[in-house]
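[step 3/7] fold_predict: job queued, chain A
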Amino acid sequence: MSDFLRLPFKFLQRCRNYTRRVLSRIARAMGAICCLPCCPRRNNRTEVGAVDSLQVYTTASFSESHVAETSSGRLLIFANPNSGAGKSVAVFRERLKPELVKNNISYELIVTTHPQHALAVIKQREDLHEFHAIVILSGDGLVFEVINGLVGRPDRERFFPHLPIGIVPSGSGNGLLSSVFFTKSHPLKGPKSLKQSLESVSQVNANASCVNLTHVETDNEEHLLSFLSVGWALMADIDIESERWRRPLGGARFTAGAFIRCFNLRKYRARLSYLPASNVSCSSVSQRSFPVFERELGAGTSKMLTESESKPNFKKYHLNDRIPKLSDSVPHNWVTIEDEFVLFYAVSVSHISANGMFMPAARLNDDKLYLTYILATDMSRSVELLNFLLKIEKGTHLNSSYCNTVPVSSFRLEPIDEGSFITVDGEVVKTSRIQATATLLQTAVIA
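[step 4/7] structure written:
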């Protein structure tokens, strides 16, 4: 073990009881942000942006199907056996499957075998219109794949938001489900939350609530849809940097990574530009819900288009039609800050995990994004940063004097110094700069 790792372990051993209590609270608060002890290891992490090299979907991927004699509905189900504690398939077979069979709900189960497996299936399946909903037993990563698989289809408008997503929490974050459950006063964690999620997706009277989506553009002309967050600086680095300690430290790598980074603060120089939401004259997107299994399934298959024809025109979905491309100059009515940052995080919903109420004021149908950042000049003490992370669990961190929160319609982040990571919904994105914009597009979540 290197001296770099030996020092924090000596400290942890000497202050075992106190340190474990503090770091445990940080882990619960950070959830999907930094993947601390409550956030089991992510297997087979891959960068977003390798769509062209996706493995082709084959029928060999299917592991189980069931057709009810008098079917009340039909679900396409994905289970990631590597997410969370690795119990997604067992949860399906022992708890979800019996309820689906009892309620005469047909299904097809796909157990994912590699990163972007679900994305490839969703993009290529010609019978997707024959399902009432997609159910995911995993974390937010698989939700990200499904949503971006849908937007990559030539018939994408057929599914947003009409093909809802059901989530059975089996991963590290589950921020999207937590945000929807929060609006309905459902339990967000523990056995009661799991029971609620299973009931939500397996009942014939299931309902889905619409959630606004964000358009994300990278410098390599990659266009993505985000439902949760864009991360950079401290939170992204804790998550990604701790990957190197997977073998020697196991699950403890998250604790070590957060502790080391908080007490060895980095400064991240960047140019941040944004259009304040108050400058946008657009009506808020309506909040609505709809019954899942009462929807009449469409007929026919997708018309196959060329690659250029199938690319979506995201500009027509922007709530503000004057948002420039990432390659264009920043408009004069945008605010620009060039400085050294400690923390940067942008969210579109209230929760980033079951224990992370990052933006209490956010609504599912918000016509804005919420930027939160801390400048290096305002943050000089590691203890203050630890205190900030602890407060995320109760949503009181935004009251900190050094924390800046700005509602925006769009923002552009351009890191100046090399060596930092950018994440979208917790997934690493290969880009040197990024732009995110609020849109009219919505997905729907069963709850």
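[step 5/7] annotate
The longest helix spans residues 16-30.
The mean pLDDT is 83.
exit 0
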